[in-house]
Automatic annotation (TrEMBL):
Record: residues binding heme: C94
A GO term, aspect molecular function: heme binding
Name of the featured protein: Cytochrome P450
Pfam family, one: p450
GO terms under cellular component: membrane
Record's subcellular location: Membrane
Length: 149
């Protein structure tokens, strides 16, 4: 399933610009390795675009959608790392990610087998941004039933 894993991983990479999980500093202060210090009580939100579109990891065209770029790495869509933080990371990485990816695979398996999916003009709709948040595009998708063989 390396192609499906790659496609899901790439799709999630393009839709997780901000992880809305605030972290509060509970000690007197916290200093990051780059020297930036956050005082006690301050809430910190991850702006994951910096990781998800990292040019050092994904190349100068890190913002293009490359559905099969992970095929050669044979990496699951549920595997987290520093440049793929859609499910968070570390000790509190999303425990539901294996289930979520499995459901996505089942859904896509049926959709791909049964339908030809396209937009009206054939172009990929732009993602809808509201500030740093990504929402599904309002453009319609057309599902055409594939001929039974
Ligand atoms: C595509 C679907 C999903 C996405 C993008 C997602 C994303 C996330 C993210 C970003 C976190 C925060 C991780 C962190 O704090 O570093 C999280 C935590 C969590 N997620 Fe998910 N999640 C998804 C599906 C699910 C599902 C299906 C379940 C349960 C069946 C689930 C259960 C949880 C739980 C319990 C936590 C808290 C973990 C902790 O704090 O230790 N998630 N998720």
């Amino acid at each position: 399933m390396s192609k499906l894993d790659s496609f899901i991983r790439e799709s999630l990479r393009h839709t997780g610009d901000m992880i809305i999980v605030p972290r509060a500093v509970t000690t007197d202060h916290y200093t990051f390795s780059n020297g930036y210090t956050v005082p006690k009580g301050r809430h910190v939100y991850d702006f994951s675009e910096d990781c998800l579109f990292s040019e050092s990891q994904y190349g100068p065209d890190s913002k293009s959608f490359k559905p099969f770029q992970f095929v050669s790495q044979n990496v699951s869509a549920s595997k987290v790392d520093r440049t793929y933080v859609i499910f968070g990371g570390g000790r509190h990485a999303c425990p539901g990610r294996f289930y979520a990816v499995l459901v996505l695979k089942l859904f896509l398996y049926h959709v791909i087998l049964k339908y030809h999916v396209r937009t009206e003009n054939g172009n990929t709709p732009k993602k809808l941004m509201v500030g740093p948040f990504v929402f599904p595009s309002k453009e319609s998708l057309i599902f055409e039933r594939r001929k039974e063989t």
